[in-house]
User: Fold RNA polymerase sigma-70 factor from Streptomyces piniterrae.
Amino acid sequence: MADDAFTEHRPLLFTIAYELLGSAADAEDVLQESYLRWAAVDPATVEHPRAYLVRIVTRQSLNHLRAVKARREEYVGTWLPEPIRTAPEVSEDAILAESVSMAMMLVLETLNPTERAVLVLHDVFGYTHGEIAASIGRTEVSVRQIAHRARQHVHARRRRFEPDSDATRGIVRRFLLAASTGEVQALMDLLAPDVVQISDGGGKVVAARRPIIGRDEVARFVLGVIRTSAATTRVEPATYNGMPAARFLTGGELDWLVAFEIHDGRITGLYGMRNPDKLHRADTVRALDRGGPTHGNHDR
Assistant:
């Protein structure tokens, strides 16, 4: 019985943990810890299993997030969320696609753990302020204030983007072709003036230590990377975090991947992952789910 309930809601629980933590590995750890706690409970005493499980996962995620905050502050180079390979239906859910996009995940990193939990549970998953208050041990009034403050913070920093689609994949194909053939003008035409390129090597492989900003600088960086890539490198299209992406394989091994943020037909962000610790799980397609309506009401 316990296994059935946990399995049924696992995609939702993983999605919550991932959005709170920005790491698939940490999310899996939280789910394992949460399952052990759930298995120790008599299911007959639980009126709403999904709500109960969400509460466990939220609390475990908050504990985990507070523990890793210091570690991330000492990270070598720029930290990016662990990319997750997503199925096409994720891109069709505008709220879910935006919430797991690299840009949004980076904005969420600037919130404190409680703000992040409140905003994600309310704005993405539709839980009421009262339900969230019960999950994190705060009053409903406090949760409303936290949600308002967090939402203002996020809206001030949010970057618009278009999820993976035929149109955005076409832009990525043209970009990769221009880069591989050295067509500088064609490359520049596909980049927004304020485009940002961010790389994450984790201090373990060569990667840009700081964000690269501006069309000229990003174009120069991309052409330099392509020039120094091994002749045996193969490029595959993919979808990561609901965004169009490209996988670069050298000798059959995934060497790096890039997720593309696109708005109004121009590339506004490139998120390059080279950290091998984050890449070795990048082949797994993750089932994400926002769940249906909760047993409460969605409030604002």
